[in-house]
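This section describes the prediction task in plain terms. A model, or a person checking by hand, is given the sequence of a single protein chain and must write out its three-dimensional structure as a string of tokens. No templates, partner chains or ligands are provided. The sample shown here is typical of the held-out split.
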Amino acid sequence: MTRDEARRKAEELVSRMTVEERAGQLRFDAPAIERLGIPAYNWWNEALHGLARGGTATSFPQAIGMAAMFDDGLLEKIADAISTEARAKYNALSAEGDRDIYHGLTMWSPNINIFRDPRWGRGHETYGEDPYLTATLGCAFVRGLQGKGDTLKTAACAKHFAVHSGPEAQRHSFNAVATPKDMEETYLPAFRALVRDAGVEAVMGAYNRTNGEPCCANEPLMAKLRDEWDFQGHFVSDCWAIRDFHQNHGVTGMPVESVTLALKNGCDLNCGCTYQHILKALELGMISEEDITRSAVRLFTTRFLLGTLGEEGSEYDAIPYSMVECPDHLALAHRAALESCVLLKNSGILPLNPEDGSTIGVIGPNANSRVALVGNYHGTASRYVTVLEGIQDLTAGKCRILYSEGCALSEDRVEPLAQENDRIAEAVSVAKNSDKVILVLGLDETLEGEQGDTGNSSFSGDKENLLLPWTQRLLMKRVLDVGKPTMVVLMAGSAIDLTVAQDKAEAILLSWYPGAGGGRAVAELLFGKESPSGKLPLTFYRDDALLEMPQFTDYAMAGRTYRYYQGTPVYPFGYGLSYSSFTVKKLEADRSCAKVLVRNEGAREAEEVIELYLHDEKSPLAPPNPVLCGFRRIRLAAGQEETFEIAINPDAFTVVTNEGKRIPGSGSWILYAGFGAPDARTEELTNRKAVSVRIF
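The expected answer:
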């Protein structure tokens, strides 16, 4: 069904409703209209890295981990699997009369906000700090969710429009001030791409204000969305964000004024309860019946495009419940976990040999944690495999595995009645009795996440600094002081200062939140069944770099992210090691495409990611550092070489004026090809220099 056909059907159906019925349909929990054969529908569902909060579903790595794959093709397959499970559950549960929250076909994903500041607690929901990477991956995710058929498989939603990345504690009253240049250069490109290139069906507004106007009724942003980008779908508020207009932002004085401001500026669907005042606003003449009708038609257009109204049905109605957490989807999740993990350091100790009969100590609060596997916005898996369990399974009958929790995640003791640091002595004993130590540290959704969802209420999910909790820092020191070869596995969704581990540990593997079965993938990487191939989608700073950065509340990009940061990071954007050794042998390029000859000079088959960066040599408007403009994941056998073609982002050849206008660049560029950003820190860590050519 085309959009025009769906819209005509929506207009006809809405015309048969009373104004009261139309108004009721603008709620996220839309009631049934039995006389018209319209079933109840709850618009709220989540699919960030698998169906969330609605029961059993395949659990994929957290979004930041999937970004680290640098693999838009695999991400599209993952989103397709998620939408298959959404359809399977919708088909089965609606047949039982269950039309509850988290069981619908409108997915409030992906989160394409830019992870501009490492303190932001929700950064692990995003695809990192780069607008081009975020746009590319976001488009892939939308295409996978929405499908290629005549009917929308599910409806994706780009959120949170448009300038939103903390601080969480202030989001209901905060005004994010961004210059026209930063808007065009950083905050808007991914949203524009998802609307124009991927046809995303919905856009969600943020809680905060942007440049003085609340995001769910922001006239300049709404005009850009509808008029400039020709967005045809529906707009939804973040949950209870419209209530913030009068309660927290102070831009209105009462609910009817908030309804009026939101509806007239184009917010069609209210996640929350403020639109219960629509009829009162209509009675007072503050809004018109046409305002209500316009939004109702948009919403019913989406429902017709999903094939859930009328007698036609859809091509997805036959998807059986057996597709939920099916073997193919579990295999896809495992593949994603393998690709997402990033090897940050390796002195040569990895990969470990599971056949050597050694005693391995597995220590740390995240070693046997299920919570640390899944991040936030997660579903429920039928089986979880922690890092400890993955190591135990892989080495069963071959190695002796000793285990100690070591410490609590952030508290000063594990047992409430014990003394402080009640697991440290046990951890030290395990280390002393082991040949090698795997130290599993990090965070989980109770320490970094969304305001209101996190268990750490002292700073509402944001991080105060970039250090591990002090209990874990003490644990790491005591274990490293034992002197046994130690590998650190970091489970976290954001930048952590790993300077101590970089200096003293033998190896560091970043697993992010790898999904419910992610412990198996971590074990397979540690023991060499696969080579790590993930790349950092964000910069890992030293903690003291926060002193040099703009304040968390300052949305200026200068001094932030790899494009503007002038200091030396612990680990740079795009960085990640391999068990093999790849070399760029030749680079040719024009303004549309690069041809990169790559050779695997190592002794094993492995995957790698070719990364392209462009630097405008002469324009004062260009970012100071080279900018990602293309990438491609590859796989080569030992000794194999091959030429790969990689499209170059055309926007890379433009610059943005201070007034926010995108114009051609200087005409003199340097294109770099390698396996990380072309900076001094990457060269130092990899002992390799990117290959470059000039483009005119």
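For orientation: The domain at 341-537 is CATH 3.40.50.1700 (Rossmann fold).
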